[in-house]
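REQUEST ID: PR-0412
SUBMITTED BY: lab tech R.K.
PRIORITY: routine
TASK: structure prediction, single protein chain
INPUT:
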Amino acid sequence: MINRRTGLLKKTACAVCMAAMVLSLAACGKKSVEGKWSCQQNGAETTYEFNADGTGSMDIGEGIVMPITYSFDNGRLKISYTTLGTQNDIEYNAVIDKNTLTLTNDTASLTLDKQN
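STATUS: complete
OUTPUT:
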């Protein structure tokens, strides 16, 4: 009876360790938009900075930098900002491949490069 319990405990411990390992590996693979990303658009450079707390900035050049808020979940990036008192919300399908962030929606397609 003791050998059965020991065997069951070993199997249970092994299963728990395997589950923890799978969860930790899955967490390591989660991609994030945090950081600075830039692209050339219509001859001007646009830079987005995404902070860990869901805030950031959008620098559209010529000294124009707007504060933003954002959310990134399940490959969807939503960026919110205010211009001339009007709230603007833009949603993109977002794909991160190494140091490239590709944003697409019905009206735009942007390819941004990660900045160091």
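NOTES: Strands lie at 35-41, 44-50, 55-61, 64-73, 76-83, 86-97, 100-104, 109-115.
REVIEWED BY: pending
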